[in-house]
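Aim 2 progress update. The chain analyzed this quarter is reproduced below.
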Amino acid sequence: MSAPTTSSTVAGSRFRAAHEADWTRLDALLARAERRSVRALDDDDLLALPLLYRTALSSLASARATSLDRSLIIYLEQLCARAYFQLYGPAEPAAAQVIRFFRHDWPAAVRGLWRETLAALVLTLAGVIAGYLLVRGEASWFYGLVPDGLAGGRAPGASAATLRATLHPKDEQGMLAVFAAFLFTHNAQIAIFSFALGIAFGVPTALLIAYNGLSLGAMMAVFAGRGVGVEFAQWLAIHGTTELFAVILAGAAGFRIGAALAFPGRQARLDAALDAGRAGATVMLGTVLMLAVAGLLEGIGRQTIDGGNARALIGVVMLGAWLLYFYLPRSRDDAR
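Predicted structure tokens:
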């Protein structure tokens, strides 16, 4: 009677020796995912998890079919159940994902692009200064720097009264609405293309960011040349601080992708681009929300707020709020 028992024990030992390394690795991955979340696993572990799960299922089927040690079968059943829950269990509730995005993912992604953001800001300011100086020195530069839809009646030959009229909601159906809508669309397109064209090593992104600054500087030169520069800046501030910040962040995301492709470091070029793309996509999702907020600010400001100081104050407050939201240190910033 001892021979079958000995044979079964030997078979069980061999079975364990052949598969235990996979079970142990799966157990360790599951323990890490259960302590934090599946997001705590790196790419290699995420790819290995379903393979190890299928291996454990196969081992469980074999253990049941050959009537191996009951304790081994129970262990494998529990291991497979835990793996199934992690792979196919209920996903994180949508509300929790939204909260995590706003509390951690978006600001963390923006902070991770601080170098690229600084580069986009410098390019924008350089463009503004260059556009301003070019148009103040030679008015004809305006027509090469500013699109026709954005210029409209705000050309170098316009009088101060004409320019001032475009900044105040005297006529709700007038040119101000058209101007504001075109400006918003123009900046939204710049933001989207700045991100998307980052794949061309960031060169088109740099050109678009600089061009956006040039056109803004050209507009400022026209208004300032007629003594309406302060009013134009006040009108722009109410929505422009949010809108231009969004464009700069989109440019930063494009720069990150371009830099990853040009200088992948120790990673494969495709892997570096994918990592940069994930961070950039998070920033761009938030950028779309910022552009929507800018649209609301512009609409409300144009319709209800005519005072220049009030417009400027709202713009400054919004800029301060964005800076605090993105860059204020967080005590548990890395918590998932």
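Residues 98-327 form one domain. The chain is about 80% helix and 0% strand. These observations will guide the mutagenesis experiments scheduled for the next reporting period.
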